[in-house]
Amino acid sequence: MKMQRLSAAGLALATLVFGVAASWPRQEQQPQRSPVFGVELPKGYRDWQVISVAHEAGKNNDIRAILGNDIAMKAFRKNIRPFPDGAIIVRVAWQYESSPRNDSVFPAPQSFVAGAPTNVQVSVKDSKRYAATGGWGYGQFEKGVADQNVALTQSCFACHIKLDAIDKQADLVFTNYSE
Could you give the CA distance from residue 122 to residue 45 in angstroms, rounded to a whole number? Predict the structure, then answer.
């Protein structure tokens, strides 16, 4: 009899705990947003079309693939500037390193490849929301997580605005597109 009461009490406690847990308001996981601009890492960006590739020497010493959503690609192809709202440009970067494996096939060292991934940078065009920064909002992501360094995020516009001084037609975008 004592065992039955204990089992019944255990069952009642388990039901109560389960019931409370099931009815507890669930917190939706907030998308990771960059500081300052609130830019998110776009879903499916790795399937976007390639605009261009680049090698940045200096302290970064990385290679990059620059990708664009459909709105950005249309603007690049038709040379539409300023870019329309909704254009998103993503820069995916990897360490730039030589490939001893590939070089073993060639007569001289010449092969450089993508090494470890470094980060993803995102530029989003919204002329109203980001009016103070030429219509562009910026974010940087490390391993899929928004870098929360405010100074770093603010430095994006500081660099892009320098381009405007030499090429006002670029709409603050470094990358060019050619077929």
Answer: 10
Which CATH number belongs to the domain containing residue 48 in this structure?
Answer: 3.50.70.20
Secondary element (H or E) of residue 154: helix 150-166
Rounded to an integer, the average pLDDT of 5-28 is 39
Question: Is 24 inside any structural domain?
Answer: no
Q: In Å, how far are 36, 56, 72 from 143, measured between CA atoms?
A: 20, 20, 24
The bridge status of strand 145-146 relative to strand 136-142 is antiparallel
Taking 90 as the threshold, does the pLDDT of residue 18 lie above it? no
Task: Give tens-digit pLDDT for 57-77.
Answer: 988 889 999 999 999 999 999
Contact 37, 138 (CB under 8 A): yes
